[in-house]
Design a protein that fits this description.
The protein has 14 helices and 13 strands. By secondary structure, the protein is α/β, with parallel strands linked by helices. It folds into 3 domains: about 100 residues, OB fold (Dihydrolipoamide Acetyltransferase, E2P), CATH 2.40.50.140; about 150 residues, 3-Layer(aba) Sandwich (Rossmann fold); about 100 residues. Helix 5 runs parallel beside helix 9, helix 6 packs parallel to helix 7 and helix 12 runs antiparallel to helix 13. The radius of gyration is 46 Å and the shape is elongated.
Length: about 450
């Protein structure tokens, strides 16, 4: 065998050796099925098994009636599923933090690529460690008076700046910005970013709450919160140092931790508890856009009412000024005086025929007539004064002097409705001491 033949034979042997040692290529489904088979074989003799742990990340039944949660201890977490046909027979009322013993079997959920514990039944053993710590701290802080209502600070009705202590990348800050922009776009939002989950999260939260107290930042209201999660995820908001930081805050604090069913120590200490971050934003700022609409409606209604009353008073004034009494208020007095003069003349003419007794009667009647004359004049004088006062009150110039104005179009028509004007119209505005023109720039 020459050198080249030897090389060819050696190459063939090497290819056969490499082909026999190459790894088998499997699909994801094949690997998952293999893992499922291995787990099934391992737990075959042990099924069903009983696992003891603390309930975590529990959200109750979903729309199909199934329950998804986790069982955990100090070192591990096991995903669990409690299907409707099984949990319907369970009379145990467990919750987040409950210590339970669950009976079931280990299965692999192929589409999710994870193993899980499928429950057949469950019984409660007690409260979990974290829940016991939660209850203990809650009782301690309640005894110290940190939850008392008289210590709650009122939330400002019209804040200028709202601070938010939360993660810079989560959905909480996005939801708050969205709600504030829709309700009160003039309000500034100041983010105090911090870690909201993990061992050092409580220290970060406390640090940012204290930072927000700086008067130079002019924070009116402070929102402290994060999104939903398990009791472990929310635990930084159950820490004692966070509770004291909120209680000692000089700024009103709104707690927005988790979902509506989640309650933390932070919720009890804060001045206001919100079920969600979006609701916290609604508590923090007023709906200025809706308030402006209501004010515009009220203003237009007031203008219409004023113009209606002015028109009514003007008609009444026209009726009064057209009456004979208003043209010459003294005319009735003159007529009365002439009548009295006639009576006096007649009495004087007949006095020479009157006996002394008649003279006394005449003297008495004369005094009565004079008294009546004075009384009538006084009555009409008072009435004249009242009419003059009413005329003064109805005088349009008097109304203008109290701060009102009359707006007219170019053809002198009084504007009483918004639909009478449009942009770039030239309007005449009459005030107490004159008038001026203006151009409509916005309707």
């Amino acid at each position: 065998m020459d050198l080249f033949q030897y090389a060819d034979e050696a190459g063939k042997e090497e290819k056969q050796e490499n082909a026999s040692s190459a790894p088998t290529v499997l699909t994801v489904s094949q690997v998952t099925v293999e893992i499922k088979h291995v787990l099934a074989q391992h737990f075959l003799s042990k099924n069903p098994i009983i696992i003891e742990g603390e309930v975590s990340n529990y959200r109750g039944r979903n729309s199909a009636g199934h329950m998804y949660f986790s069982l955990k201890d100090d070192n591990a977490v096991l995903p669990c599923v409690f299907f409707r046909f099984a949990n319907a027979k369970c009379n145990v009322s467990f919750k987040e933090g409950s210590l339970v013993q669950a009976k079931g079997k280990i299965e692999v959920y192929e589409k999710g690529g994870r193993y899980q514990f499928v429950l057949e039944s469950l019984r409660e053993k007690g409260q979990g460690k974290l829940y016991e710590e939660f209850v203990k701290l809650k009782q301690k802080l309640q005894t110290l008076g940190l939850f008392e209502q008289d210590k709650k600070k009122p939330i400002p009705a019209f804040p200028k700046r709202v601070g938010v202590v939360t993660s810079a990348t989560g959905s909480v800050i996005k939801d708050i910005i969205h709600v504030v922009a829709n309700r009160a776009p003039v309000v500034d939002i100041v983010l105090f970013p911090c870690q909201v989950q993990g061992d050092k999260a409580s220290e970060a939260i406390v640090s940012q709450i204290k930072r927000a107290q700086d008067r130079a930042l002019h924070i009116d209201t402070l929102i402290v919160g994060r999104g939903g999660g398990s009791i472990e995820d929310l635990w930084p908001f159950n820490e004692e140092n966070v509770a004291y930081a909120i209680a000692q805050s000089t700024i009103p604090v709104i707690s927005a931790v988790g979902h509506q069913t989640d309650f933390t120590i932070c919720d009890f200490v804060a001045d206001q508890r919100a079920a969600t971050p979006s609701q916290a934003a609604e508590f923090a700022v007023p709906n200025l856009i809706e308030m402006k609409k209501q004010m515009d409606s009220t203003y237009n209604q007031l203008i219409r009412e004023v113009m209606t009353r002015v028109a009514s008073y003007r008609q009444q004034l026209d009726r009064w000024t057209g009456s004979p009494m208003m043209r010459d208020p003294r005319s009735p007095l003159y007529q009365r005086m002439q009548y009295l003069d006639d009576l006096q003349a007649r009495l004087k003419e007949r006095s020479k025929y009157i006996t002394p007794l008649k003279v006394q009667q005449w003297s008495y009647l004369r005094k009565e007539l004079i008294s009546k004359q004075l009384q009538v004049m006084k009555t009409y004088s008072q009435r004249l004064d009242r009419l003059q006062t009413q005329l003064t009150l109805l005088d349009p110039t008097q109304i203008l002097s109290r701060g009102y104005s009359i707006v007219k179009t170019k053809d002198k028509k009084i504007i009483s409705h918004l639909d009478q004007v449009k942009i770039d119209d030239t309007l005449e505005v009459v005030v107490a001491d004159g008038g001026f023109e203006c151009i409509v720039s916005k309707v």
